[in-house]
Amino acid sequence: MRPATALLLASTMLAASPAFAQTAAPAADAAPDEATIVVFGRGETRQVQEIKAQEIVVLTPGTNPLKAIEKLPSVNFQSADPFGNYEWSQRVTIRSFNQNQLGFTFDGIPLGDMSYGNHNGLHITRAISSENIGSVRVSQGAGSLGTQATGNLGGTVETFSADPTGEMGAQGNLTYGSNDTVRAFARLNLGTRDGVRGYVSYGYGSTDKYKGQGKQDQHMGNAKVIVPIGDAKIDGWLSYSDRREQDYQDMSMGMINRLGWDWDNTFPDYARAIDYASRLNDVDLVSNSGGSPFPDGRFDYSGASVATGQTYPGNVTSADDAYYDAAGLRKDWLGAIGLNTPLGEMATLNLKGYYHNNSGMGLWATPYVPSPNGVPMSVRTTEYKMDRIGAFGSVDFTIGSQNLNVGAWYENNKFNQARRFYAFSSRTEPGLSFRDYPKNPFFTQWEFDFTTDTFQYHVQDKIDLGMVTINLGWKGFSVTNKAEAVVQASFPQGKIKAQDWFQPTAGFVVKVSPDAEVFGGFSQSTRAFASATTTGPFSTNQAGFDAIRNNLKPEESDTYELGLRYNTPVFNGTLGAYLVNFRNRLLAVQVGSAIQGNPSALQNVGGVRAVGVEAAGNLTLGSGFSLYASYSYTDATYRDDVLNGNGDLVAAIKDKTVVDSPKHMARGEFNFDDGQRFFRVGLNYMSRRYYSYTNDASVPGRLIVDASLGYRFTDKVEVQLNATNLFDKRYVGTIGSGGFGNSGDAQTLLVGAPQQFFATLKAGF
């Protein structure tokens, strides 16, 4: 047993006290009673579920709220850490659509695709502390028409902050656990129930890596205020985040078998990293007459590359087996102000404006580029600066049996991205830390300014005919992407636009009894292009961009859904089926290893068809006991082989299963809560996942068990303990960390976290 096991056995206490729960965002129509943690979208014409605050606070404090939604059908969440916060590893797919084909919002504010590349938003864990979340709503289909997203081909995830209670008081949480995990959180509640009310909070979390050495930590501040003015309401939000995380080594199945599950970067063993890099290249830098080792901005060095077959110590076979260190650094400010006001007796106006500022870096110790002083490696960064400003709003008005909603969204995103190199001090001392932003680069390989202007509108009519409800509407958008070189490289400059003014949706709900309803619908969605050198149409060279800019089609999807919901005080559940036709799939093929940063080629490569079944339900057993279970079956396959511009076969993938799309996912929970004592056991099963397009490389299925146990001393004081991966299962967590290839094993896997234990003391005042 690990040392933390003693902490688990000694504590025997875990809970999520109602004293700390806050008002969640409005759920779907006619939600079940407050004891129900998962709401199955009653009254909705599409598949929708909502996770309430009670389900989030019962996780280890600071856990990614996306980890709470992995229990929902068709949601595939994965990460290499127990909290789901490690951004290089964090992935979520829904119905086989990957993360950048989904839509994410926070209190309506667009979060972009929440990708590590950080080009159009920020991750939810950098927008709000987990203790301040009120609810998370998942639409497995295309999502609501009013969602501020232009990438939601396959679903939306909407997170809502908790409203202030209006009661003066304070809350404090203190967590300690495996790998010297320490997290402290404090919130001060201010105001009155009927007047101005708000809260301000601060959280700090830090954990050592569970293999290798390094640290991942974050400072987070949140503030929310609500100001009632007559029948109107003004709300404001402000958050700050400073996150710094040292990375784990990307693996392949071959590396896992050869080097073991616990293999990682060499940090802090600098001498070993120098040895590996030296074996790759023994380089003497050449200075030109001007004294620069890089004449005309290009690398110019001589020296013989290590011959094929160069031996490394132990089972190491290349310099890519272990880098010295890598890290992600992110700082974010997010602010918003909104207005909700009635317009007469039958209409309501909602407006919100927001601003987001981000600066960050992804750092990598690369053995492919030496430092000018003769050190056989350097620090390669991808650097980000972002300023987003936008506004969205809608008007709801009722005319007889019809509820009409009309709205629009505009955003201007100015994004700067650069690739720079920084020198290590010497062969014996690195002279810099991967937890700090480096200064004084010796080379800027490229730098680009991107401007993205987004305009989207929607029209929706919900017609209530009593037993039958009909939902009709459409949305449209125009997104213009522009790239301008600051430091030119092979990447292109220019403009490209994605425009689709009519994306229709239609649906129905039929109440077949007081407890049951049938729902069904159709929706069509288009995805805009991305603005970055590392993804999207600007990730190729100028000639490639010029060839595709007028011919490249945005990705599109058609989603058909049909299902049944049933709700009684004893059972609450849903059963559904879907068909998704996805066309104009865009594929960027990487050349060389990920660290080399070579351009990729982007093209439309055909379609995907996904057919699936989803089921989930809560069963109340009485005396504080309950069961939850969900199951999803997904059959997602490529409909076309990949061909090049000449019609030649590149990859034979027709009828192959979509990468990172397990056919079977099943989740189960056994819960007990008598108001004082609490325990939960959760099982999470996922079948085989492929990480090559031809399906010749895969990771096996896995079953992970989590558990919790707790005790409430009073309605103000409780102790909570969480155990993740209780039986210490060895498994691959993330696939595709370095992208996906056509065939063969690749260094694109991250090992899942081992058994971990965490204890939390919560106190209210």
Number of DSSP-assigned strands = 40
What is the 3D shape?
globular
Strand content: over 45%
Poorly predicted ranges: 1-35, 283-309
| Mean residue pLDDT | 88
**Relevant CATH superfamily of the largest domain:** TonB-dependent receptor, beta-barrel domain
| CATH topology heading of the largest domain | Maltoporin, Chain A
How many domains? The number is: 2
Please compute the radius of gyration using only Cα atoms.
26 Å
Total count of helical runs of at least 4 residues: 5
Q: What would you call the structural class?
A: mainly beta
CATH class of the largest domain: Mainly Beta
The main pleated sheet reads as: 22 strands, antiparallel, barrel
Signal peptide: 1-21
Protein name: Iron complex outermembrane recepter protein
Keywords: Cell outer membrane, Ion transport, Iron, Iron transport, Membrane, Signal, TonB box, Transmembrane, Transmembrane beta strand, Transport
GO molecular function, one term: siderophore uptake transmembrane transporter activity
What's the structural blueprint in terms of helices and strands?
Blueprint: H1 4-11, E1 38-39, E2 48-52, H2 53-57, E3 75-78, E4 91-94, E5 103-106, E6 109-110, E7 133-139, E8 156-161, E9 169-177, E10 181-191, E11 197-208, E12 215-229, E13 232-246, H3 253-259, H4 270-280, E14 284-285, E15 301-302, E16 326-343, E17 347-366, E18 378-399, E19 402-423, E20 443-464, E21 468-487, E22 494-511, E23 516-526, H5 542-548, E24 556-567, E25 571-583, E26 586-589, E27 601-604, E28 608-622, E29 625-638, E30 642-643, E31 649-651, E32 664-673, E33 677-686, E34 689-690, E35 698-699, E36 702-712, E37 717-724, E38 732-735, E39 749-751, E40 756-764
